[in-house]
Every structure is written in C-alpha cells, then in structure tokens.
Specification:
Elements lengths: L1 H74 L1
Length: about 80
Amino acid sequence: MEMLKEYWGLIVAGVTLVIWSIRLEAKANENSKEIRRIWNQRAEDLAAHREAREATNSLLTELRNDVKTLLGRVRH
C-alpha cells in the first residue's frame, strides 16, 4: 500500500500514456484509411477527366474536319 501511495502519480501517468497511445494509433489508422480513400477518389477523378478530355478532343476534331470541308466547298 505504501508503494501505491508513493508512486500513484507515476502509475496514473503510465496509464494515461497507454490510453493516449491507443487513441493516437486509432486516429493514425483512421487517417490512413482516409488517405487511401482520397487516393482512390483521385484516380477515379483523373480517369473521368481523361475520358472527358478525349470526348472533347474527338468533338473538336470532328468540328475541325467539318470546317475544313465547308472551307473546301466555298473555295471551289
């Protein structure tokens, strides 16, 4: 009992440190999951933007060909 009275501060500090460490590890795990989710979302966004750019480029190519055709008709 004397030992408990003498070292109660250290015991409380040790228990607090353990609890804080567990909470810190849980938060780090949550952050890791969130980072993975954000990277996956980024990959999906990049793929969607790439498809949109390809569609836009295709449309612009078609428009350019139509303009060339129309200009060719006007010149002759």
